[in-house]
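User: quick one - fold this with adenosine-5'-triphosphate bound?
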Amino acid sequence: MNILEIRDLCKVYGKGETEVHALKNVSFDIEQGEFVAVVGPSGSGKSTLMHILGGVDVPTSGTVNISGTDISGLDETKLAIFRRRHIGLIYQFYNLIPILNVEENMTLPILLDRKKPDKKLLAELVDKLGLSDRLKHLPNQLSGGQQQRVSIGRALMNHPSLLLADEPTGNID
Ligand SMILES: Nc1ncnc2c1ncn2[C@@H]1O[C@H](COP(=O)(O)OP(=O)(O)OP(=O)(O)O)[C@@H](O)[C@H]1O
Ligand SMILES: [Mg+2]
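Assistant: Sure. Structure tokens for the protein plus adenosine-5'-triphosphate:
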């Protein structure tokens, strides 16, 4: 079964002199359980692709189908719900909420979904990611690598069916 099907994805940023074609007719499928690496030089469109697959940016044209749902057909609210329940996105630049501490950042997507965070999973992830003594710290009180580890933890809290990782170890040992 395909977890992901994308067809003819194009993304154009800007207009006129500053126009950039970040993605040109990208099509591929990924099967459930498959591990795929996207490789390319800086500026070649990797993050753009991740953000579109993660439903946080929209393509100029083309379609993204995740587990049988065409996410381009969802309105903003439905897309936000779909994202929270099905997708884990580890951002290249973390995107943590500055006024929330480590624990709050990690559990936010679950709380927004009006669910109770799985305390056991939280403890397990915090331990594995080496964040046990930083739970009450704010992002600006953390190193880059620690922030990246929080972002990894947040992406894993909802048991995502699709995990998108944008250079997730760029800042860690
Ligand atoms: N918000 C934006 N507005 C205008 N152009 C953008 C924007 N974001 C990205 N671009 C352009 O799109 C292209 C692809 O950018 P993207 O961030 O996807 O590259 P990348 O492969 O992730 O690079 P890196 O390895 O440096 O992270 C770049 O050439 C960039 O100039
Ligand atoms: Mg990038």
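One thing worth noting: The chain has a mean pLDDT of 95.
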